[in-house]
Amino acid sequence: MTITTSAPPSAPGTNGLARSAHPKRKRGFREIWWIYVFLLPTLLGYGAYTIYPLLASWWYALLDWPGFAVSGQFVGLENFERLLTDVQFWNAFGKSLLFLVIAVPVRVGLALLLALWLNSKRTPFSGFFRTLFFLPVVTTGAIIGVVFTLLLDANGPISLGLVWAGFTESPTNLVANAGTSLYAGIAVWVWKWLGITMIYWLAALQTIPQDVHEAAMLDGANGRKEFWHVTLPLLVPFLVIITLIDTVSALNVFDLMQTLTAGGPAFSSEVIEIFIYRTAFAATVPELGYASAAAVLFGLLTVVLAVAQGVGVRWARARMGGGS
């Protein structure tokens, strides 16, 4: 008796679909190949100026390399061990955290107050004021830093105005004083980016249906009660998203702080980014490997905040979806 074997029959039409799909994909690529040609310069630039430096910094962090030699000496995790005992690194780390803890709540809170004011139908010229508050956002941070070094000088209008208002006894250069330089940078940073956070809040306020406000007014709620018991609870998911976005933004203040205070005086306003720049390029003997190690740790902190932002956005979307 002869036994013959054969492959199990495939589902009806499966082979035909597989054979027909492959030529279609080939024809589709032949029709749109020119799109990839236009994308190629962007991909090359992104790879050369973003991906490669990112990967290279991890390798440089393991080297003792001043940047002048062709290659550095491999030292493993020695740079990271030095950072753990480097007083100036932890000073910069602390200044960055202090900047973040003060600047973000002030920026988010002031922007919310502005958005509530500009979102009111009783506010005249609201479009003009929205544009006015948004203008600093489109101005380069380095230019704002240079301008405010003049405005915050001892003979500048801000310092003289504080004396006139009775806040200080004598004119003081606010960016050259160790006790005020960081706080001056925080104030300028909040002023510059206040407009974009205001736009976020205005967009959030537009999502609240008008009939919700009308129902609260019919129930006898005044403006304060309506805000605390109706508006604010509906804004909580947006508060999470906006706070996390502003937190990540507060870690990227190099251009503004470098031109405004350059980390001084006496490292009183030196944030992590300025520490990295000074160690890599401005020191008498540059230490590119050591600066790369600091940049890696700073990058890990940013990644942690980015992950927290992603979790927060998911939670906020779930809240908004559940409440709709």
TrEMBL record:
Limits of the ABC transmembrane type-1 domain: 93-309
Keywords: Cell membrane, Membrane, Transmembrane, Transmembrane helix, Transport
SUPFAM superfamilies: MetI-like (SSF161098)
Record-annotated membrane-spanning stretches: 33-55, 97-119, 131-152, 182-205, 226-245, 288-311
Stored InterPro entries: MetI-like, MetI-like_sf, UgpAE/MalFG_permease
Superkingdom classification of source: Bacteria
Cross-referenced Pfam families: BPD_transp_1
Topology versus the membrane: Multi-pass membrane protein
Record localization: Cell membrane
Region (Disordered): 1-22
Protein family membership: Belongs to the binding-protein-dependent transport system permease family.
Entry protein name: Carbohydrate ABC transporter permease
Taxonomic lineage: Bacteria, Bacillati, Actinomycetota, Actinomycetes, Micrococcales
